[in-house]
Specification:
- The protein has one domain: GIY-YIG endonuclease.
- The strands form 2 sheets. Strands 1-6-2-3 form a 4-stranded mixed beta sheet. A two-stranded antiparallel ribbon has the order 4-5.
- It has 130 residues and is α+β, with helices and mostly antiparallel strands.
- A hairpin with a 5-residue loop joins strand 2 and strand 3.
Length: 130
Amino acid sequence: MTDWIIPPGVSEADLTKFAGFTYLITNLITGRAYVGQKVLKEKKHGKVRHDLWRRYFGSCTELKDDVAALGPDNFRREILTLCKTRPLMNYEETREMFARNVLYARLPDGSRAFYNGHIMNRFRPSKVAA
């Protein structure tokens, strides 16, 4: 499985100091990408787990289907921003989505450049004029 690309100067041990991170997952075959966020401390079966992020490939069904079909080695996973609070994580994810134009960006072949289908579950291509 592909490892996460962690920002320079940050160790894996440093990640425990943060609430979570924003990330970019890129399909290396098609060039499509996904912007998201991941909480680092999760409860699973009543216990706090710090390691679930290592296997994470986003919440997008279409992305997860592509990972299953193409294999995880065909995807690059990058941590964009480490966030000390969840509100900051929400802000950074939203900022990245608008900055990258995830709803309207196109690849050279005309297909959608991002798997993201909405921003904050509020902005969707069908509701916002390009």
